[in-house]
Amino acid sequence: MKRPSALRQLGTTQQKLLRRLLLAPQGATVEALCESLGVTHNAVRQHLTALIAGGFAERGEARLTGGRPQARYVLTASGRELFPRNYGLIAGGLIEQLYAQAGKPGVQAMLADMGRALGAAAAERIAAVPEEEVVGALAEQLDALGYEALAVKRDGETQVEAYNCVFHALAKAHPDVCRFDLAFMEAATGRPVQHLECLVRGGHACRFRLGPR
Prior knowledge:
Layout: H1 12-22, H2 30-37, H3 41-53, E1 57-59, E2 63-65, E3 68-70, E4 73-75, H4 77-81, H5 87-126, H6 134-144, E5 149-154, E6 157-162, H7 168-173, H8 178-189, E7 193-197, E8 206-210
Helix pairs in contact: 2-3, 5-8
């Protein structure tokens, strides 16, 4: 069963209000929102209060209109993230174009280069931790990228498990995408990384073992 988007879990009026704020990057006044939504001032203020409490809207910079400042309300970053973005479809189209133009080896090289470039930035942070904390530090870096990663004990050693494949739909069609993950981790730690289990191939997580430096 398809889960409803976070936006659709809000009330109809709050959805409309957020869309009006999306169309008003400079912010919208209560009066403007009342007019566009066809509801009372009191209703708009109640909905704004709820959206502000949820972190989806905030009071922006007031502007002078006829000598009197008017409060304006704007979307927060969290509010913008409520609106769907079809990254998967776009990313799939892009990578297919890359395959057509650069071929499989070219795409693999590009994905590895991207992973190494991001991993180099993470390497500075990981290099500062003791040897026994490297796996945990790597899991934290992956978690910051959205992988929901943890350092776990498996088979008498500490491994990394990631429970959210950020490329899941894309990796199903194009397994080469996993080269980004491996290149990122190897560059971040200066160690070879073995991919032991994969969500795309039916595993309960993406699981990785770090080799010696």
